[in-house]
Amino acid sequence: MKRILVYHNASLGDTIVALPALNLIRKTFTESTIFLLTIEHRNIKATQAEKILVNTNLIDGYILLKANYQTLSGLIKLRGDIRAFRPDGLIYLNEPRNRFKLIRDYLMFKFFGIKEIIGINFSKKRCELEKIENGQYESISHFLGRKISNLGSIDFSDLSNFNLHLTSEEHSKANQILAQINKSQPIISISIGTKFTSNHWGDDRWEKFLSLLASKYPNHYLVAIGSSDEFDRSKDLLRSWTNRSFNLCGVLSIRESAAVISQCVIFVGHDSGPIHLASSVGTPCVGIYGSRNLPGIWFPPGKTNQIIYTKIECQGCQLIVCSDKNNQCIRSISPSNAVSAVEKILSPLP
Question: Are 52 and 255 in contact, with CB atoms under 8 Å apart?
C-alpha cells in the first residue's frame, strides 16, 4: 500500500501509548504516505496529535474528525476528505470497542470506499483486553500491537518505541526555563490535572502530599506541568515550595514540557496524559490512579515506576464523575502513600 490512512482517536496519552504501533506501521510501510484520521479537539485539556507527533516522521498528514462528523452532512464531508487522499487501505488503531461499534465503523469505512482494512477483527478475543496476571490487564499499547500483529512484532521492553524525538530547540527551551536552577539540585515534576473528575485525587490530598515532600526533600526543586487552566490551582498548591518551584502550566508546548520533564528525577501525576509524556522521556513516574479504568491498561511502561491503584468492586466503571462514592478509590490513597512511592524511586532501601 502506497497511501495509508490510520484511524486513531487520540489526545496526549492515547497518542503516546500508540507510538509502538505507529513505529511498526512506519517500519512496515517505509516508503508509503501515511495520514492519521483523528478527532479535532476543542477541550483545553486535550492536545491535537499533530502537536505531539511533529518531527517523529511517523505521520505525513492529518484528516480531522470535526464535531459534526456523525451527522449525515458531516459524514459526506468526511468521505470527500478521505477520497481526496485516495488511501489504498486503512489501519484501524482504536481502543477496545464492542462488536456493534466495530461493525458500525467497518461499514462506515466501506461506505467511504476503503477496500482493505487492517486491525478490525470481530472475534471476542481480539475485541477485548486480555487479563494477564495478578488481576491486571494488558496495556493499551499491547492491545494496539495485537490488533496489527500481522504486520510484525513489537518489543515493548524497548522504550525507544515511545521516543518522541525531541529537537535541540525544544531541549534549549527547557534549558532556558531551568537556567536558574543549580544543576546539582534535582528537580521533581508534577501534574495535578486530569480530564475526568473521577481521576482527581483532590487539592487537599495534593496540598498535604507536597508539604510532606517539601520537608522530605529540602534540596529539590519542584516543577508543575499542565494546561493553562491549571495555573492558579498549581500556584496555590506550590506554596510549601516557596523559592524552590516553577509553575509552568500553560507556559510551554507539550513537547517543550517533555523536554523539561526529561531533566527531572521523578514525575508525579494522575492517570492522565502527562504521566505518559514523562514515561516517554524516561523519567520514573509515581502514578496516583483512580479505578475508573481496569488495572494495568493505562499504566505507563517502565520497571521503576510506582503506580498506586486501589482495587475496588466497581473498578473499570468508566465514570467521568463519581457522584455515588465521591472518588472513594483514588481518595483512599493517602498523601503518605504517595510519599512512600516517591521514596522507593528516589531513596531506595539497600
Answer: yes
The helix, strand and coil proportions of the chain, stated in percent and rounded to the nearest 5, come to 40, 15, 45
Residue whose C-alpha cell reads 500483529 in the numeric block: 149
* pLDDT tens digit at each of 350 positions of the chain: 899 999 998 889 999 999 999 999 999 999 999 999 998 887 777 789 999 999 999 999 999 988 667 788 888 889 999 999 999 999 999 988 888 889 989 998 998 999 999 999 887 666 788 888 888 999 999 999 999 999 999 999 898 999 999 999 999 999 999 998 877 889 999 999 998 999 999 999 999 999 999 999 999 999 999 999 999 999 999 999 988 999 999 999 999 999 999 999 999 999 999 999 999 999 999 999 999 999 999 999 988 999 999 999 999 899 999 988 889 999 999 999 999 999 999 987 65
CB 225 within 8 A of CB 248: yes
Q: Among the residues of 155-202, which ranges form H helices?
A: 168-177
The model's pTM is 0.93
* C-alpha 309, offset from chain centre: 17
Q: What are the structural domains, with CATH classification, of the chain?
A: 3-162 (3.40.50.2000), 177-346 (3.40.50.2000)
From residue 48, alpha-carbon distances to 93, 143, 213, 238, 273 in Å are: 16, 22, 33, 28, 12
What is the residue whose three cell numbers read 512511592?
341
* CA 261 – CA 174 distance, rounded (Å): 9
Rounded Cα–Cα distance for residues 168 and 103 (Å)? 45
| Terminal CA-CA length for the chain | 54
What are the helix (H) ranges across the chain? Answer: 12-17, 19-28, 49-53, 72-85, 99-111, 124-127, 140-147, 168-177, 203-216, 231-237, 254-261, 273-280, 328-331, 335-346
49 vs 155: CA distance, rounded Å: 23
Q: Which three cell numbers stand for residue 38?
A: 483523528
The full DSSP string for 221-281 is: EEEE---GGGHHHHHHHGGGGTTSEEE-TTTS-HHHHHHHHTTSSEEEEESSHHHHHHHHT
Q: Angle, nearest 10°, between helix axes 19-28 and 140-147? A: 30
Q: Which amino acid is at 167?
A: T
